[in-house]
Amino acid sequence: MGGSILFTVLVPFLVTQFSLGLVTADVVTYDWRLTPIMTAFDGVLLQTLGVNDKPCDEAVIEIELGQEVEVRVTNELYEPTCLHWHGMKQLGTQEMDGVSGITQCFIQPNTTAVYRFKPDKAGTFWWHSHHKTQYAFGLRGPLIVHAPENELRTCERDIDEEITVQLGDIYHTAPTFGPALWDTIVINNRGRFNCTAAALNNLTECSPDQPLSTFYFHGGKKYLLRLINMAAMAPFEFSIDDHEFQVIAADGEPVVPTKPINSIFINAGQRYDIIVEGRNDTQNVDSFWMRAKGLSGLPWMVRSADTGLPGFNDEGLAIVRYNAASLSEPTTQQFDETVTVNEFDFTPAMMSVLPMIPADRSIVQFDITQGGGVVSLDGGEYHSLIIPDEPPLLTISNGSTTADLPASANARAIEYGKHVEVVLINNMNEQHPFHLHSHAPWIVGSGQASSMDVYNNLLPPSKLVGAMLRDVYTVPPCATDENNHCI
């Protein structure tokens, strides 16, 4: 058996502070220097990566739909880099997607590159480095595209305040072998690590009084929280004690507002827009915990909490406070019973009816635990991706074809404008989030099936009416035997 998930893709195949873009006509311009910085997000002093000598959670790209973004990036790091604009379609600007060695050349140290693109839809997105482990060490931030007033939905018109909530994981050192496991979970780059444990891990500079992120609510007010999972590894369970909320968008795609729920699963790279209403009964309790619980162990990942270093922290906390003068920390507890919605069970605001038979079908088997990650396309041999000497986008634009690329490029030609069904087969006993750049495919099925049934197309009927569009989707693990080996 192998865990598999199916989805159908319509392939249409000036200097300023970084927190405020310079607006010239319909272009918003940012001037960024990527720099090493010292931070203590969880109390432990580390060298991380920043923008203009500041933490990247402050490097927010915020524009109106219809405007172009221009980001001038100067690399002052000690290694190459590139930046990916997660959730941007980049139709006609593929060279701006930001994947080093694939759609562009590396931005070498002490050189500058300019990204310019125009978002095609409003919503919650993010940017991050797409080189090695740079985004795990801080090179990541929000990208928010606001809809014009006349295009707001009814559920968006009476919002009193918007708050961007960045969920992340912190690594005190780069992993030297085997699968990684975070040290701390942070909310808007703030969390806490036990300083006694830090000393055991040879981390001598640690502050035990690390402040947590605080959000101020008022009774009866409506808040739009833009949740972004910027973690390198950690999937989260997000909740706010004693508060329910409604999901109104997933990965930038509008959904019919859900029933009130009290918890949502959010995998790495995913985003949710949720509406929370401030409580009116806060006389006795004026502060509440906001929680991002990191999920470890199978089926989420091979590493479990008991394999972490001393002080391993699997829950990020922030404070929702109703009394600005109060300094006490919350004493609230999580809901006894979880009420949630599965990531594929939202109802899209715009319903689509997909064709019964796709124009093309591709089967992708993968295992990221073997040889740094291997992929098989349509039953072929497994290959690890080897970055070609020239980015394939440039090779193709210079007149070559997909067939001219080396097998290790794992390239697959598809026809512009056609519906393509892609079946992902996960050969691991842990889930894995999957992101297809420049696309938000319809998720038409998910579950477990034998590889033989996949290749013979003997799968349950696909959801062709009302399927969700997602640009990050969780591929479930394969079925396992008593030793957790795929069968």
UniProtKB/TrEMBL annotation:
InterPro entries: Cu-oxidase-like_N, Cu-oxidase_2nd, Cu-oxidase_C, Cu-oxidase_fam, Cupredoxin. Gene3D superfamilies: Cupredoxins - blue copper proteins. One of its GO terms (molecular function) is oxidoreductase activity. Pfam families: Cu-oxidase, Cu-oxidase_2, Cu-oxidase_3. Belongs to the multicopper oxidase family. Keywords: Signal. This is Multicopper oxidase. Residues 47-149, 167-295, 389-477 form the Plastocyanin-like domain. It comes from Phytophthora palmivora. SUPFAM superfamilies: Cupredoxins (SSF49503). The lineage of its organism: Eukaryota, Sar, Stramenopiles, Oomycota, Peronosporomycetes. It comes from the Eukaryota. Residues 1-21 form the signal peptide.
